[in-house]
Design goal:
The chain is α/β, with parallel strands linked by helices and about 375 residues long. It has two domains: about 200 residues, 3-Layer(aba) Sandwich (Rossmann fold), CATH 3.40.50; about 130 residues, Response regulator (Rossmann fold, 3-Layer(aba) Sandwich), CATH 3.40.50.2300. The protein has twelve helices and 15 strands. A seven-stranded mixed β-sheet has the order 8-7-9-10-11-14-15, with helices on both faces. It is elongated. It starts with a helix and ends with a strand. The N terminus is likely disordered. Keywords: Amino-acid transport, Signal, Transport.
């Protein structure tokens, strides 16, 4: 049968009232995180977690609004920079994405959130912990991890109650994440017999901490708390030990990673602790299966945030299915009242957009890896 006859036959069928084959509804999910730069592994971890969710959704064969749905991930690199994050956010808005997973850092998530809010596009961060992110009055902002108030409080209480810390030195990297986290640690120590003997800071790119540590060493702290990412925490630890400082080092989730182990070399020991705004894999509802599938698909272990990125995509998708619409304005109310069983456990948001029943896990470096030692809710 030649092409001309085929086209003619198709025209006859259409004129006769035969239904045309409907096209798939394309749903684009934006993903924004640092895909290059010193914390790119965290960004790629988020990207891979979101990508695995998209692949799973395409296998499910869902129909929304009566049409088959094809899911697509659109990833953008914000290099963990606030200004770049706003450019990326506007680009995703202009592409008319149906929802956004990201950004990774609080410093990027907060300025980007206004752009998504103005466009009415739901945004779920799998990792941003600064409380301000969900307290700006935007109805489009959600997060899947504990915020800094919860995490910082857990860090402070653990350091004082379990580590028996009495003299604290607090350091942050001046980012929205680092400052916010350490401020909450300091707040949690108020009213206790513990004292803050030093309060110092660097930047998100600081690798030479010798001047800061030299100033701190003379004050003889038994606990040093650092708010920042693994790329700056590793040289901080190395230089602490080089100066003979034996204090416990307590880190936030930005350094609670496999990268921290790799970057620190052989100086990591059992005096180093970190907190993770979430649950360890064996405490997640579907953690074991997810970690296994993730390794098989991408050839690397989960870093930190992949399960949360996966659930962020799934939360957006389940809200669309509940609303029977992929239009942000129509499914947003369903996202706000969503109750979903995810990889990390129950996914349900409070009126601010924070996840309910948030958990914080405290880990200790033992035998070459981070081992959970306490879960705080």
């Amino acid at each position: 049968m030649n092409r001309k006859i085929t086209q003619t036959a198709l025209g006859v069928l259409l004129l006769a009232g035969m239904p045309a084959v409907s096209a798939d509804t394309l749903v684009r999910i934006g993903q924004a995180s640092p895909l290059t730069g010193p914390i790119s592994r965290a960004g790629k971890d988020i990207d891979n977690g979101a990508r695995l969710a998209i692949e799973d959704l395409n296998k499910m064969g869902w129909r929304i609004g009566g049409q088959p749905v094809r899911w697509e991930l659109v990833s953008e690199d914000d290099v963990a920079d606030p200004r770049t994050a706003t450019i990326v956010a506007q680009k995703l808005v202009d592409m008319k994405v149906n929802g956004v997973v990201g950004h990774e850092t609080s410093g990027a998530s907060i300025p980007a959130s206004r752009i998504y809010s103005d466009a009415g596009i739901p945004q779920i961060s799998p990792s941003a912990t600064n409380p301000k992110y969900t307290r700006q009055g935007f109805k489009t902002t959600f997060r899947l991890v504990a915020n800094d108030e919860q995490q910082g409080g857990a860090m402070g209480r653990f350091s004082f109650q379990t580590l028996k810390g009495k003299r604290f030195a607090l350091i942050d990297d001046r980012s929205a994440y680092g400052q916010g986290l350490v401020a909450e640690v300091e707040k949690s120590l108020q009213g206790s017999p513990a004292s803050v003997v030093a309060r110092e800071y660097g930047t998100e790119k600081t690798t030479d901490w010798m001047a800061v540590l030299t100033a701190i060493r003379s004050k003889n702290p038994d606990v040093i708390v650092y708010g920042g990412m693994d790329a700056t925490a590793a040289p901080l630890l190395q230089q602490m030990r080089r100066l003979g400082m034996k204090a416990n080092l307590v880190l936030g989730d930005g350094a609670c990673s496999s990268d921290m182990i790799e970057l620190s070399g052989n100086v990591l020991d059992s005096r180093v602790y970190c907190t993770e705004a979430g649950l360890p894999a064996d405490k997640m509802s579907k953690g074991a299966d997810f970690y296994k599938r993730f390794k098989a698909r991408f050839g690397v272990e989960v870093n930190i945030y992949a399960p949360y990125a996966y659930d962020a995509v799934m939360a957006l998708a389940h809200a669309m299915k509940a609303a029977d619409s992929t239009e942000p304005a129509r499914y947003l109310p369903f996202l706000a009242k969503l109750k979903m069983s995810g990889v990390i456990g129950p996914v349900e948001f409070d009126p601010n957009g924070d996840i309910k029943h948030a958990a914080v896990t405290v880990k200790q470096y033992q035998s070459g890896q981070w081992k959970p030692v306490s879960v705080v809710r």
